[in-house]
Amino acid sequence: MTIRSHTKLQKWPPDWGGYYGKGDRFLIGDSEGTFKSALVRPKHIEVQAEFQGRDQVGRITSEDQKLLERVCEIMNQNKGKPLKEVGDLEVGS
Q1: What does each C-alpha distance from 6 to 24, 47, 58, 82, 86 come to in angstroms?
Q2: CB pairs under 8 A, 24+ apart, for 66-73?
Q3: pLDDT under 70 in the chain at which residues?
Q4: For the chain, what are the domain ranges?
Q5: Bridge partners, 38 (sequence order)
Q6: In the 8-state DSSP scheme, what is residue 23?
Q7: Which of 13, 29, 79, 80 has minimal Cβ neighbours within 10 Å of its Cβ?
């Protein structure tokens, strides 16, 4: 299964957030933006992306901590890739 389609993962693409100024655009979905890094936490992964020169942060959640650790490791092997490609990465069942 891919990150996007995995039934135990909640929310790919994540809802993106960060600091914004007047006129800044929000990253929506994964059709734009570049993956920067992922950090596994209890019950979620913090995902960092770059969009129009600004960092944005999102969250993927799951009750399966081992799955989150595996997904985070796979994601971090793909730094610098478009977010759409990261969402299509195979992570197993």
Answers
A1: 32, 17, 17, 19, 13
A2: 67/6, 67/8, 67/9, 67/91, 68/40, 68/43, 68/44, 69/40, 71/3, 71/6, 71/9, 71/38, 71/45, 72/38, 72/39, 72/40, 72/45
A3: none
A4: 1-86
A5: 47
A6: T
A7: 80
Q: Which of 65, 59, 63 is nearest to 45 (CA)?
A: 59
Q: In what order do the strands lie in the sheet with 54-61?
A: 34-41, 44-51, 54-61
Closest CA to 87 of 26, 13, 34, 27: 13
Burial tier of 93 (Cβ tally within 10 Å: 0-12, 13-18, 19+): exposed
Question: Which pair of structure tokens corresponds to residue 25?
Answer: 């655009």
- Report how far residue 93's alpha carbon sits from residue 91's, in angstroms, rounded to the nearest whole number: 7
Is the separation of the CB atoms in 30 and 83 below 8 Å? yes
Give dist(CA 47, CA 51) in Å, integer. 13
